[in-house]
Amino acid sequence: MQDIFSILTERRIQEAIARGDCKNLPGAGKPLKIEGYYFLPQKLRAACTVLKNSGYLDQTSKVDDYAPSSPTLK
After folding, report:
1. Distance set, CA 68 to CA 2, 3, 14, 53 (Å)
2. Global pTM?
3. What CA–CA distance (Å, rounded) separates 44 from 13?
4. Would you give the DSSP letter of residue 55?
5. I want to staple 57 with a disulfide (CB 3.0 to 4.6 A). Which of 34, 36, 50, 52 is the partner?
6. Can you say how many angstroms the Cα of residue 23 is from the centroid of all Cα atoms in its chain?
């Protein structure tokens, strides 16, 4: 079951689409470039953020180089 925030958000998005507010947006039809730790399990996101902010995780390093591939972290 969705919470009230999700319902209202979805309703506003649908209204904007119906009005045509979402036409001709920059980047329309192009793949999204998703950066960050969204692909990591939630337990590791905070840890990676702390490591990055403290300087232990290099800005140019890929987080997936540090992420274990263990299925127990799901």
Report:
1. 32, 33, 39, 20
2. 0.41
3. 31
4. T
5. 52
6. 23
